[in-house]
Structure prediction request, 222 residues.
Amino acid sequence: MVNAVVSRGTGMTESAEDRAQWRGRLLRAGRDLFAAYGYAHTTVEQLCAEARVPIRAFHQHFTSREALLIALYDEVATSGLRASEEAMLSDDMEECATEERFRRLFAAYVRGVTADPRAARVAFVEALGVSRTVDDHLAMWRTMWSEFLTCEAERAAERGEVGDGDQRVAVTVMTHSVEELLAHHARRPRQVTPDWLTEELTRLSLTMLGSPCTAPALPYGE
Prediction:
């Protein structure tokens, strides 16, 4: 026997399997609607209609639209983190010169966070300036990446491949530059390609650390 009920809110039949999929449906709906119409112009009712779930399903899984937005951001950020971790674990990564090491890390990260253009737009455009709660959450991720990049900068300094001194200021500027370039990509994914983004991030980061990139710059949009 199928365990199903009819929702009074939507008139749709809901099985236990449907209810188990509600969170995933809402995440997909948020990704699609926030990217297409903007976070500010998307209501809970529209999200539920797109996901084909009752209104109560939203409140069972998310405390607010902000909570859904944060969950979508975390999906993208986690994809970038996992891709970067995989790059770090590659066999010859420890022997790489700083320029090549940064290029590989940024290439992996960029692939991870830009794989879905809709998700990238939500994370790097729609999540900006929404509220103090969302800003604080993004700041938590930014702090984690700043600590990681500071370790990378200090490693490079020890090898004599970047300038000496406290790298924290340069890394702080670097993390904001990464966010700005990712937002630029998210707004114009066809113009700002992942390859161009990787090279520009590598070039900017090395320049900020006092070690100009040796590779020629890629033309914009290529």
